[in-house]
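cron nightly-structures :: item 1 of 1
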Amino acid sequence: MMFILFIFLFSVGKSQSLEEWNCTENKHFLFSNDQLNEQCTITIEYISLQHYKQICITHRLSIKTLPLPSFNSNYAMHTFKINSCQLLTLNQLPFLLPATVENLDLSYNLLSTFTLSFPLPSYLKYLRLDHNPNLIDINFSHSNGQQRLIGLSLRYNKNIRLSSLPPYLKQLDLTDCNLLQSPILSILRSLTKLTHLSLADNQLKQLPIVDKRTQLEYLNLSNNYLTYIDSGWLHKSLKILDLTFNRIESIEFFHEILTMNQTVKQNYRDLATNNPILEVSLHGNPLNCDCWLGSILNASSIKIVDLSLLQCKSHSIINMSDNDFLCSYSQHCASDCSCCDFEACDCHSVCPSECLCLHDTLWSHHIIQCQQRNLIDMHIHLPETIT
């Protein structure tokens, strides 16, 4: 009799799940920055032992029954999203989440506090708290949970207060978090495992010091007030760098990368394996037409992905020649030159006061412009590579 009653209750639960949840097969993960519907939406992603995926969706926060894949031992809940449901506290979660959940998305809600502890899954790896305008206090505690967390997104939360961050984070998104008035920047130095970081839309005028052990692969610094990037942020592991819409005039801060590029230029194998191409976005900056810009355009280790959008002196860069990208100087003596103090010195160059002298970053190409200056004589301290 009890067995029959169990079967009856299980069948009722399954029928209710079918009515309240819409489940379909899906080949794509849902953990992304996609804009969300304003309607309250709870989304669960299941992954089977054979790596098949089931996506189940409902629009009822009051739901109490789990979708059918939860009753299938072949499937495990992998991602749980509850968005635009006016969630005030974690106590409003409709049910306890199983330990198998690795991705948790609580974006577009009204949370004011968040604590990484029970009843949240103990094996959580990725956490999204984007667009919670009331969110202030976040406590990652000292539980094992913070040791496992490797992805954290806090986008568009302007009032958050943090005293610490999970130490093993690899991905951190702090887009539009009012970092100029926050102590969060000073915490970044402790995150030596970071590979992906976004500090976009924060009105930053300078960046904090970064630990030398940090090996970023992706860095988004767009929509700030930066004029210079410290070389510590330009690690050789960096693959994508977004500098769009800042106040950068000269990109001389790429000097070390460009020097390294010249060093390995003759060894294609070393260039391909140890120094991957860095993809840089630069449009929206008041760039100077100088030798550093010209050098980066010709560098084999750097690719300007928005080249067609770049301008300097109100001209499109793609329509300019190499001679338009030179730096001026008054005098120059090579670092390995031993005769700088002598008049007859091949490695000491002095620009005539009446002229404009230009050079490339390697000091191998010079242009001396003295036309229409009514010169009578010319001193001898001119570079051998003059044109």
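cron nightly-structures :: done
Residues 172-325 form a domain with the Leucine-rich repeat, LRR (right-handed beta-alpha superhelix) fold (CATH 3.80.10.10).
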